[in-house]
Amino acid sequence: MKDTIWSPPDAEEPAADRRQADAPGFVGRRHEIAQVRRLLAKTRLLTLTGVGGVGKTRLARRVSEILPRRYREGVRLVELATIDDEDLLAPAVAASLGIHDRTPDLEAQLIEHLADKQLLLVLDNCEHLLGACARLVEQLLYGTSRLQILATSRQSLGVYGERVLPVPSLPIPRPGDRTRDIARRDAVRLFTERAATIRPGFHVDAANARAVARLARRLDGIPLAIELAAVRLRTTSVEDLVNELDERLDALAEAGPGRLARHQTLRATMEWSFGLCSAGERRLWERLSMFPGGVDVETAEAVCPGQGLAREDVLDLMMGLVDKSILGVAEPHGAGARHRMLETIRAYGREQLPAAHAEALRERYIEHYRQLVEQVRVDRVEPGQIDRMRKLEPELPNVRVALDLCFGRPGDAAAGLEIAAELWANWLVAGGLSEGRYWLKRGLALVPRSSVARAMGLWADGLLAHYQGDAAAADARECLALARQLSDERALAFAVQLAGVAALSEGDVEGGLALLEEARARHWARGDVHAVGVTLYVAGLFAATMRPDRAAEYGEELVTLCERRNATLFRAYALYAVGMARWEQGDLQQTEARMREVAAFWGAANDRWGLPQSLEVLAWTAAARGRYERAARLLGAAHVLWEAVAASPARMRYQARSHQECAERARRELGAQAFTAAFRDGTRLGLSRAIAYALEEP
After folding, report:
1. Which of 199-208, 611-620, 626-635 has the lowest mean pLDDT?
2. 102-126 in b/e burial notation, b at 16+ Cβ within 10 A?
3. CA dist., res. 154 & res. 48, Å (int)
4. CA 93, CA 85: separation in Å to the nearest integer?
């Protein structure tokens, strides 16, 4: 059952909402904001519907800015416009929540994480994943008690209990309005604000009011259409602009029955804007529509030239599209800046891209992102690992397009599988295990059984499966057999490594460590120091609880290797492995020194997977020193972080025993009431205070 809520856009809104000032770049919508706030007090699922360009996304984003105080765990926005595969929906939601998906059943993990949380989840642009969104929303609402969802879509989700709020166009001037009344209408206010950026000082007065009112009415108050039209003031007057628009829309109306529908008005406006672009700007618009994650100038210059577009012209053409509001202004990101298109504009550009140009662009696109993925790999014992992780983050939507292009044609499937396999460590550190395995399994289903690409795909899938708690043995067996069949030394070294991981996960300590040492020797023989580093880390971590002396040797060897090569991220994980070995050896001083150093680094790097592990170990050492209140607080601080990544030390072989012993000892020594109070104090510390507390000297 769903209810559709609507009332006239000019209806009187509550006084509190009238006083609410517009945010910069956001005009009007006070009535709709008041409706959203009122409805969210009554329903757990509210869907904002309307045609493209009407402002659903901007309204949802504005609501997400003003409502966080109502929700104890805040508001989380999931941008779905960059997701084309429904299997990536749950991973996208997990990423927005900071969840590291470490189980194959990600939907169940999401429900577990959100079970009792008071949170507003905003799902933006659901229409192209409508069925998948409806199924996931239904599961989340059924499995949780306090979660609320705000969705935007061109049509409702059709989920039981859904309330639907159609988002109307902005209010337009009425016949007979005076100049002052015209200027106050939201459609005119938006036009005036955008026009003032083109012509500083522009305002509505008696001389132009009628023309501006006619323009707002002709564009049906559609925000995107108004913004595209306002750009024309750079070269023409308001009166001439309205005449041009009249000619365009009248011609289209004559070709079809009756008055134009709103979606036709927007499309006509985009066609008009497209026609006003130069030939080069039109070509670039078409090609930039391939980048859902946005694009920087360097990437545009690398991928877009050809078929009548020169590399040296790309920058000027991009600036022309920015001036016409087709391409967004540059947004700072890291050391550079990125431009993005609104989804409606990007979709129009994709429609215009000629097939011949699309084919050539496809090859350049795949090759560019194949090279990028190789450059940003974090499984490298070398400097700049954190910077590479941050460089990949905004590019992931574009990497997904490249993978889709590869897997859409059998001849390119091996390239796609290679890209997915090379990203294994990025998927792991960022917590995107389900997405990583999704792409790997797509590739493995398409790539022939006798290829090196398949062997490396099996290796990567086996490692990610292991970290998800899934069995890696099947992948390991096929990978090893295939590597031997191909007589490929590189593939064989990795296959032996995976076989060692599989053996250790099944409890064969000696056999597993022997295989990992064989893999290390094979990697050294090939000069692959990066693979040696991964092997040493896995061996050190697994051996810690069972063979601490050997684990310490593996860890110290990896620390030395990382320091020699200035690999800071790898070094932090090496120090963690050493710290675990020292803990098992009973060396509290060395354990604490290593874990404090690791916690400081992971805190600065915002490594949410590493942080709870280091806080856990510092809790253990506090209890071992008789500082039980500190131990309980650190357990509480770690607990919050474990929840954020939907994990638990109880499910991790190398942490489970010590975690349980620490908690039981602290509870016994403090008493249940004092332990609970200290634990709760730890959960309330917040991230920065928790790190500072953990770094205090014992």
Report:
1. 199-208
2. bbeebbebbbebbeebebbbbbbbb
3. 8
4. 13
Q: Give Cα 1 distance to the centre of its chain.
A: 32
What is the number of H-type helices and E-type strands within the chain? 35, 8
Percent of the chain beyond pLDDT 70?
92
Q: Residue 535 CB: number of other CB atoms within 10 A?
A: 29
DSSP-derived 3-state class of residue 8: coil
What's the average model confidence in pLDDT over 158-175? 90
Reading phi first (left if > 0) and then psi (alpha if -120 to 50, else beta), residue 161 is in: left
The angle subtended at Cα 541 by Cα 536 and Cα 545, nearest 5°, is: 135
CB neighbour list of residue 656: distance below 8 Å, 6 or more residues apart: 649, 650
Q: Is the pTM of this model over 0.85?
A: no
pLDDT at 3 over 50: no
Strands 162-166 and 45-49: parallel
CB of 127 within 8 A of CB of 83?
no
Q: Give the ranges where 85-237 is alpha helix by DSSP (H).
A: 89-96, 106-114, 130-143, 179-184, 186-198, 209-218, 223-230
With residue 162 as reference, give the H or E element that holds it.
strand 162-166
- Asked if 230 and 194 touch (Cβ cutoff 8 Å), the reply is yes
Tell me the per-residue pLDDT of 651-668, one tens digit each, with 9 for 90 and over. Answer: 666 778 899 999 999 999
CA gap 126, 683 in Å, rounded: 34
> Average of pLDDT values for 240-267?
69
> Cα torsion at 274, 278, 279, 280 (round to 10°)?
-110
> Sign of the C-alpha dihedral, residues 17, 21, 22, 23?
negative
List, in sequence order, every residue forming a beta bridge with 338; answer none if it has no partner: 331
Distance of CA 117 to the CA centre of its chain: 21
Interacting residues of 136 by C-beta distance below 8 A, sequence separation 6+: 89, 90, 93, 107
Q: In the numeric block, which tokens belong to residue 673?
A: 């009431």
Contact between 468 and 501 under an 8 Å Cβ cutoff? The reply is no
Sign, CA torsion 284/289/290/295: positive
Pairwise CA distance, residues 321 & 287, whole Å: 12
Phi, psi of 454 (to 5 degrees): -70, -40
Contact 483, 495 (CB under 8 A): yes
Rounded to whole angstroms, how far apart are CA atoms 333 and 117? 31
Residue 258 is inside which H or E element, if any? Answer: none
Amino acid 252: pLDDT: 59
In sign, the C-alpha dihedral spanning 190, 194, 196, 202 is negative
The answer to whether residue 216 scores a pLDDT higher than 80 is yes
CB neighbourhood size of 170 (10 A): 25
| pLDDT of the residue at 25 | 61
196 token code pair? 């003032």
Dist. CA 682–CA 174, nearest whole Å: 59
pLDDT digits (tens, 9 = 90+) for 327-367: 888 887 766 789 988 888 888 999 999 988 998 899 999 99
Distance in angstroms between the alpha carbons of the first and the last residue of the chain = 59
DSSP state of 498: H
Q: What is the pLDDT of residues 487-537, one digit of tens each?
A: 999 999 999 999 998 888 888 888 999 999 999 999 999 999 999 999 998
Sign of CA dihedral 539, 545, 547, 549: positive
Strands (E), 198-334: 331-333
